[in-house]
Amino acid sequence: MAAAQTIPDAHEKLIPTLWVQTSVEWRGSALQAYRAARVSLDQALKDKKWTAALEQTGSYGKLPPAIILDIDETVLDNSPGQARQVVGKTGFVVRDWDAWVAEAAAGEIPGAAEFCKYAASKKVTVFYVSNREAKSEADTRRNLQKFGFPLSDGVDTVLLRGEKPEWAASEKSPRRKAVAEKYRVLLLVGDDFGDFLTGIRTTVEKRAEMAAAHAERWGREWIVLPNPGYGSWESALQEPERPATALEQLWKRESWLRTK
Ligand SMILES: [Mg+2]
User: Fold this and answer.
1) Measured in angstroms, how far is the CA atom of residue 8 from the centroid of ligand 1?
2) Cα 6 to ligand 1 centroid, rounded to whole Å
3) Ligand 1: distance of its center to the CA of 190 in Å?
4) 187 CA to middle of ligand 1, Å?
5) Would you list the DSSP string of 45-110?
């Protein structure tokens, strides 16, 4: 019998980054998500009881329509920034991320700009709620403009972390609430559980329960994009306390693997 092949060490981001950058499957998943979004948008416009935001309260039927999208890995593709981690054998470093954002060089998630333009053509205000920092707003707008994403000039539709004191946290619920006070929120579009629900920084088990409680929303009011590279799903593996070193984090991840 031949000896088992030894697998070479590789950066953990290699496969997810290549999937995003080269596979037709990733591209198809994104197009599929935005196609579902378009179908839902048309339904939601007709149904005045429809809302996607749990923060939406009171009588909202007569409010003007809006949609809320996340930015990173939802409308903009940062895989080149991730590829730099693989090539440079580094992890996520805030300084490197800031430099990447300042380049305004992120790509477009397939189908995103066309969908947002379609929504705008239906008089739906397009909001972008992102955990990019407020200082990055000009660069972020510049990046969005490259692909023709609708940006309203009358009202600030790019709502970033720290833009207001009450928006200091990565928790997006206060920003969804601010939109829901003036608009009927037709859709939430994102790549992370936090783009839809509050209190998601918890255990894997609790997150699964929360998602199950809202199972009927996926593909309707809530449109999720695939992001295999990072997210609160990965942080959840490290709960209740994230290990200090990269190696310990790796062991913690591996401890989740099911082998039967
Ligand atoms: Mg995102």
Assistant:
1) 31
2) 35
3) 6
4) 15
5) HH-TT----TT--S--TTSPEEEEE--BTTTEE-HHHHHHHHHHT----HHHHHHHHHHT--EEPT
Q: Give per-residue pLDDT as tens, 169-200.
A: 899 999 999 999 999 999 999 999 999 999 99
Which residue in the block uniquely carries the two structure tokens 């496969």? Answer: 15
Q: Is the pLDDT of residue 2 over 70?
A: no
As residues whose CB is below 5 A from the ion ligand 1, the structure lists 70, 72-74, 191
How many A from CA of 4 to the centre of ligand 1? 39
255-258: long-range contacts, CB 8 A cutoff, minimum separation 24: 256/204
| Range 211-228 average pLDDT | 97
How far, in Å, from the CA of 51 to the mean position of ligand 1? 21
Is CATH 3.30.70.2730 what the domain over 14-227 is classified as, yes or no? Answer: no
pLDDT of residue 241: 82
CA of 56 to the centre of ligand 1 (A): 22
Residue type, 200: I
Output the CA 7–ligand 1 centroid distance in Å.
Answer: 32
- Cα(138)–Cα(142) distance, rounded to whole angstroms? 6
Parse the chain into domains and list their residue ranges.
14-227
Type of residue at 132: R
Side-chain half-sphere of 190: how many Cα atoms within 13 Å? 25
Tokens standing for 260?
Answer: 């039967």
More confident position, 3 or 216: 216
Mean pLDDT score, 112-133: 98
CA distance 223 to 244: 34
Q: How far is the CA of 2 from the centre of ligand 1 (A)?
A: 45
Q: What mean pLDDT value characterizes the chain?
A: 95
